[in-house]
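Example (one chain per record):
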Amino acid sequence: GTAWLPTVKVVVIGGGVIGLSCAHHLLALGADVVLVDKAAAGSGCSRGNMGWICPSISTPLPAPGLTAQSLRWLTRVQSPLYVKPSAIPRLAGWLWAFRRYCTPAHYERGVTAIGLLSEGVPGLYDELRAQGVDFEEGRDGLLLAYDDVGKLDAAARELDTMGRFGVGPVEALDATALAAREPALTGGLVGGLWVTSDRHVRPESLTAALAGSIAARGASVLEGTEVGSFRSQGRRVQAAQVAEVAQGAGGVVASHELEADAFLIAAGAETGALASPLGARLPIQAGKGYSITVEDPAVTVSGPTYFASAKVGLTPFSNALRIAGTMELSGINRALDRRRLVNLERAVARHIPGALEGSGRHEWVGMRPLAPDGLPVIGRLPPHDNVYVATGHQMLGMTLAPATGYALAHLICDGASPIDLGPFDPARFARRMRGGPAD
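Predicted structure:
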C-alpha cells in the first residue's frame, strides 16, 4: 500500500462476509476493487447464521474418535451431523479424506493454526467500528451449557489451553450459578462455561454495513452478476468473463470482461466450481446449516448460548432470537429439509420453552464451505501467479473474516502476509491440481 506504487486492481468474486472483508482491507491498502456477486451481497451463507465471534470454540470439524459406526450413525436424519444417503456416492472421496483427518495430531495442529489466525480478530472488529462501519454487535460472551459433567470437564480443560490465543477469562458455572445467570434455561443442565471474551454480531447488519462502506469508498459492487470463465496467458489470469443476470427472469442481460491485476475467489462452497476452469480442484463441500429467527420472542437469553449435547445455539438480537445449528452433507444445494429443523425445535423445547413463540418466524438454510481437513483455504491458487482464494471457513466465517481479509489484502498488495497463512495454503491440495506443476 505504498503511495508511489501503481494501484493494484483486484476483482473479488463473492459478496459474503469473507469477500466483503477482503474488499474492505484491499481498499485500505489503496487497491482498486471490483466486487462481484451472483445475487445480493450478504444474501448467502452469511445471512442467517448465529453471528458468533468465537475464538473459544474455533476448532477443526474433523475431530478424533470418528469411527465406521459413527459414520453409519451420521445417515440418521435427526443426528446433529447428517450425511444424506443419496449423496454418499458423490461425497465418498471427500468423506474418506475427512475421516483420515480425524486424528489427535491433526486436530491439535488445526486448533493452533486457527487460534493464531483468530488472535487479532477482536482488535480488527474494533477498527471497523472506529472507521465508521456500523453494525449490531454484542459483547456478552458465550455461554456453553452442558447436561453431562464429563463433557463439561473436558470442555473446561480444552478451553484452558485456548488462553494462549487470548481466549478468556472463562468462568465455570455449576447448576445453581447457571440458573442464576440464565433463569429461563431448563432441561437437566448440570453447569456451564461462560467465555467472557467472545462476541457476536447480527450477520446481515455486518454484511450490509460492509457493502455500503466499500461502495462509499469507491469500490464497484456488481450484484446479480455471475462469473463464467477466465482468460489467461501463461501463469496469469488477465480477465474474468462476467454476465449480468436478470433477477427472476433467469436470462442474461449483458456479458463483458473484467480485466484486473489480481483475482480473489471468495464464493463460499461454490469456490471449488469457480476455480475448476483454472485447472484447480479444491475439495470444498457444503455443510448446510439451518436457523430459525423468531421476531419479538416470548422468551430469550441475555447472550449467545450453546447447548453442547444438542449442538444447537441461540443468539439474541434486537427484537429477535436466532436458533441455529446442525450440519448436513448433501452436496451443494439450498434445499431446506424441514426434518432438520426438528433438532432445533427439540433443543428449544427442552432447554428454553417459549422461545419459538413470537410475532414472526423465518426459516433459513445456508451452505458453509468445508475442506476435508477442517481448515480454511486462504492464499494464492497454484499454478497461477495472480489468483487467490478464501474459503473453507466452516462455521467460523464471522470469527475469521477480518483476519482473512487483512492477511489476504497484504499478500495481494504487498506480496507477503503479516499473519502466517502456511497451514491454510491452497497448495496443500496441489497433488490434485490439473493444468500445471505443483508449486
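Caption: The chain has a mean pLDDT of 92.
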